[in-house]
Amino acid sequence: MLRKKLLVGNWKMNKTMAETTAFGHASFELLRQAKEKHIDIGVTPPYLSLQTLLNINPKLIIGAQNVHHLPKGAYTGEVSIPMLKELGVSWSLVGHSERRTYFNETDESCNLKVLALLEAGMTPLYCVGETLTEFEKGVTKKVIKKQIDVGLKGVKDVKEVVIAYEPVWSIGTGKNASKEIAEDICGYIRGLLEKKYGADAHLVRILYGGSVKPNNIKEYMDMPNIDGALVGGASLSVESYAELIENM
Ligand code: PGA
């Protein structure tokens, strides 16, 4: 298998440190289960819980949900890459649609973050996806192309990037994209990468995200260009996380 399957739970603004501690203790069993099935697993907790989780189970992939592209400075409320690296955090989401919608992130600002993370030897999990209006207008591929072209501008080693296709209309709505739609766009993304990076495009893990649940994850995993899932709501409880792994 060219690409190892990957499951990432995006906790968003959920879980206190106490709740994270409970998940951390239960995560050894999740890791054992994932190892048996040859799946990489991880979570992106809020900043405050990163250290907590790293102390308990550093074998999980532990990522931040966002990062500033500059190493330090007068940017109240922001967290830098050296701060995360010091903790031992090696991944970060970039451009999640909630960041784009509520915090004005753009393809250009995402690009700065992707480049800064790669420069620091970290893994950016770059999120792309169209809004409902764009989907209904039939301009999904145009939107995705711009997000990929601009967001990954200047990236040399594309295999170090993980991409998540998350249609905005499917996130937290219970309206997951069909496996055909998800495969069509993930395949399209791989095609875009292939034009630019050749064979390396086949080493890039591309995830689907948006209302992925234990009862629908399998259909995505059967698709040739989908290598895993970025999961919000269904990643919060240990039981549901275990079911996701089981059904992948
Ligand atoms: P959801 O969120 O699984 O709750 O739809 C997905 C995401 O935002 O990554």
Would you mind describing this structure in some detail?
The protein is of the alpha/beta class and 248 residues long. The protein has one domain: Aldolase class I (TIM Barrel), CATH 3.20.20.70. It has helices at 17-36, 47-56, 81-87, 97-102, 107-119, 132-137, 140-151, 179-197, 217-221, 238-247, and strands at residues 5-10, 39-44, 61-64, 91-94, 123-128, 162-165, 205-209, 228-231. Strands 1-2-3-4-5-6-7-8 form an 8-stranded parallel beta barrel, surrounded by 6 helices. It binds 2-phosphoglycolic acid. The site of 2-phosphoglycolic acid has 13 residues, from β8.
Shape: globular
Can you tell me the CATH class?
Answer: Alpha Beta
Please state how the strands of the largest beta sheet are arranged side by side: 1-2-3-4-5-6-7-8
Quaternary state reads: single chain
| Radius of gyration, whole Å | 17 Å
- Spans of 5+ residues with little confidence (pLDDT < 50)? none
Average pLDDT value?
97
Strand count: 8
Terminal Cα separation, in Å?
15 Å
Structural class: alpha/beta
Secondary structure: elements and pairs:
Blueprint lengths: L4 E6 L6 H20 L2 E6 L2 H10 L4 E4 L16 H7 L3 E4 L2 H6 L4 H13 L3 E6 L3 H6 L2 H12 L10 E4 L13 H19 L7 E5 L7 H5 L6 E4 L6 H10 L1
Parallel strand pairs: 1-2, 1-8, 2-3, 3-4, 4-5, 5-6, 6-7, 7-8
Helix pairs in contact: 1-2, 1-10, 5-7, 7-8
The protein binds 2-phosphoglycolic acid.
